[in-house]
Amino acid sequence: MREPVLVPRLRPFTSTVFAEMTALAVRHDAVNLGQGFPDTDGPAGMLEQAKDSLFGGDNQYPPGPGRPELRAAIARHRQRYGTSYDPDTEVLVTAGATEAIAAALLALTEAGDEVIVVEPYYDSYAAAVAMAGAQRRVIGLTEAGDGRLELDLDAFRAAITPRTRAVLLNSPHNPTGTVFSREQLTEVARLCVEHDLIAITDEVYEHLVFDGSEHVPLATLPGMRTRTVAISSAGKTFNCTGWKIGWVCASPELVAAVKAAKQFITFVSGGPLQPAVAYALEHELDWVEGLRRDLQEKRDRLSAGLADAGFDVRPSFGTYFVTADVRPLGFSDAAELAWALPERVGVAAVPVQVFTDHPDEWKYLLRFAFCKQNEVIDEAVGRLRKLG
Ligand SMILES: *Cc1c(COP(=O)(O)O)cnc(C)c1O
C-alpha cells in the first residue's frame, strides 16, 4: 500500500492532546483536570425522561431534522435572546455541536475559501476546516487593561481577504474562559455585513457565564440574523457531554445547507435522548442556574488554589476552565510542565499552546478544568502545592 495512507490535509490531526494526556493521567493515577467533562450527573428529571424513552419503544431513527418536540423546545429556548426561529425550517438537531460545526463548514466552505478562526481555538475547528478543504486564517486575542482577553479586532480586519467566506467564533471561550463583549461583537457583526461573511458561532457555554457577564449571541446583532449559523448543545448545559445532542439555529437557507452535509454524516443520532433534552430545555433551566452558580464557586476555589500554589492565575468569566501562567513557579514552557506534571505531582492539565498555530505566543499558560467535585479540586490543589 502507498504510505502514508492518511491524506495530507488530515496528517496534522492524527492524535488529540486529550487522549494522550488522559492516558498519561491514568498511568500515574493523576487527578485529571485536563479534559473538560463534569463528574456529576445532569438533572434527574431529564435522566428519567431518557429512561422512559429507552423503555418506551423510542429506539428507531428520529426524523432527519430532529424530533419535533426538541426543535420546538430549542426555538423557545432561543427566544431568551429575543430572536425567534421557526422550529420546522430554522432548527436542525445534530450529533453534538461538533457535528454541527463540521457540517456547517463542509456545507458552506470549500477549497479556495478562507475561514477566520480565533486562537487559541477548540481542537476540532482546524480539523473541520481542513476536512472542508478550506484554509484557516488565524487571529489572536489581546489583553485588555483588566487582564481580560479580547478579540484582536485589528488582526480581524487585516485577516479579511476577497477569499474570506466565514468566521468561526466561540464565546464563552474555551480554553481561556473569556466572554466577548457586546461592543466587540458589534464590530465583528459590522465587518461580517460589510464583507458579506457567514458567521458560525459556537455557543455551547451560553449558560455558563460568571460575575454578571452577558452572553451575546452574534445572531442578535444588526444584520446577523440571516448570516449566522448559531450552534449550541445539551452537553455543557445539562452535564451530559456523552449524549452528543447539539443543534443549529439559522435561516432556512443556511439550515438547509447544513442539513445537506449532516444527513450524510450521521443522518440522525441520539433518538431516545432527544425528548429528554426537550424536557430539560423546557423544565430544567433553574437547575442550570444552580449549575452556573456552583461552577462560579468552583472557579473561585480552583483559582484561589492555583494562586496559592504559585501560579499567576488569569481571570475566567465563563466555561469550565481557568488558565494559569507557569512562569512564577520557574518554568518557561507550559507544555513541558504539562507532560511532566502527572508523574511529578499527580495532576493533569492541558497546555494552551496546543490549541494554537503560534505556540510561542501561548507558551506560558496551562488550562485547568474546574467542572469537578470540590474534593477533586482540593486534592489537585494540594498536589500542585508541592511544585513550589
Ligand atoms: C465541548 C465543546 C464542544 C463540543 O460539543 P459537543 O456537543 O460535545 O459536540 C464544542 N465547542 C466547544 C468550545 C466545546 O468546549
UniProtKB/TrEMBL annotation:
GO cellular component: cytoplasm
UniProt keyword annotations, A-Z: Aminotransferase, Antibiotic biosynthesis, Pyridoxal phosphate, Transferase
InterPro entries found in the cross-reference section: Aminotransferase_I/II_large, Kynurenine-oxoglutarate_AT, PyrdxlP-dep_Trfase, PyrdxlP-dep_Trfase_major, PyrdxlP-dep_Trfase_small
UniProt domain Aminotransferase class I/classII large: residue ranges: 29-384
Keyword Transferase: yes
Spans annotated as Disordered: 37-68
Keyword ATP-binding in annotation: no
Annotated GO MF terms: kynurenine-oxoglutarate transaminase activity; pyridoxal phosphate binding
Required cofactor(s): pyridoxal 5'-phosphate
One of the protein's GO biological processes: antibiotic biosynthetic process
Family recorded in the similarity comment: Belongs to the class-I pyridoxal-phosphate-dependent aminotransferase family.
Descriptive protein name: Putative succinyldiaminopimelate transaminase DapC
Organism in which the protein naturally occurs: Amycolatopsis panacis
